[in-house]
Amino acid sequence: MKAGEALPPLEIPVTRTLIVAGAVASRDYQDVHHDAERARQKGSPDIFMNILTTNGLVGRYITDHFGPAAVLRKVAIRLGAPNYPGDTMVLTGTVLDVEAGDEGETARVQVVGKNGIGSHVTGTVTVTVPSSDRDRAVGRPA
Question: 16, 75, 93, 128: most buried, per Cβ within 10 A?
């Protein structure tokens, strides 16, 4: 793990099921996340993903790369273009900086998630990779 390292992209198909399941799982019952007719009445062309689902997908992206022992210390994201059904969101990341500490290495990672209409999410994630898992996170045998 080093500054400037690019994480491999993760393509996430944005389906109705993902949008609705994410809203229900996060107890966000706003109709714009599950009722297409109501979403259109409120000015949206369709239902769209909520921020909590996006936050979870960003966390998954980071832990998929750095491993299951990685600890998310801070997730600071901002939404942009909505995620509508039928699109694909592609998450990418770049390690901004790395600091060694008693618990392992802590990195700040810039994350961007783009879809067909623009940037859906931008932000920074701070993650700690415990010393015992550090080599596995960069693809070296332990």
Answer: 93
